Amino acid sequence: MTTVQTIVDQFEKFAPLVYKEEGDPTGFQLGNREAVVHKLLTTLDVRPAVVQEAIDSDCDFIVAHHPLIFFPASNLDEADPQTKMYANLLRHHINVYSAHTNLDKAPGGMNDWLAAALQLQQVSGLVPDAAPVQGEMLSLGRVGYLNQPVTVAELVELCKQRLGVDHLRYATATLQKKVQKIAVLGGTGGKFYPAALEAGADAYLTGDLSYHITQEMVAKGLTVLDPGHHIESICKEQLKTMFSNWNKKFKWEIEVQASEIRTDPFYFN
């Protein structure tokens, strides 16, 4: 039998909690660490529809990228869908672990998955930590090179294809500008754009960009692409593969599935 804690211990060898950003609500978030796991669900977000998917699929452990609880609940009234979701997790004995900025920084983690999806080469860290962590220099984001220069218009189409998005926002001085060195940071990365400039990136790809920050970036010569926060859903299949490999290696005898629920709140016409 394999417990929640056994799986958590193995995962935290890959992405230790000491990697996380200060104040980030990352790690084991709900349930019983000693509970036996039979079926694990990987997801980007823990939302009511995902919890129902876990219930319907008889999953007893959810591993998500985004934290289950970003903001403390003000009450436990189940009339609130968020509170009801917590109650359903507890009723059905579903445990939840969130791997957020520890997964973002981990070598071979979120930002390496995004860089690989873009087929970047000579990849290095983008926003380094101030000091080594366990003797290793870690970074948020990655920067690397396309195999050849492309126009901004071509880069837009390339990103849509490789990241699986139908639409993205972009800003640039000219669509015919040639770009090759690309910085990428999953999630909300507007405040880190100086690191992209310092790295000599031609273009910076990240999510949730604001109007004025984007104006600043373009004024400083940076091409900007915002495919949305949801590109991090790449984690669902990547985590499924990771846990499936460990399942075989350590003979955990669990099932692993990736969530099929779309948690992106945005649609585009």
TrEMBL record:
One Pfam family it belongs to: DUF34_NIF3
Keywords: Metal-binding
Domain of life: Bacteria
Database matches in Gene3D superfamilies: NIF3 (NGG1p interacting factor 3)-like
GO MF term (any one): metal ion binding
A single GO cellular-component term on record: cytoplasm
Residues bound to a divalent metal cation: 65-66, 104, 229, 232
Subunit structure: Homohexamer.
Protein family: Belongs to the GTP cyclohydrolase I type 2/NIF3 family.
NCBIfam families: YbgI_SA1388
Protein name: GTP cyclohydrolase 1 type 2 homolog
Species name: Fructilactobacillus florum 8D
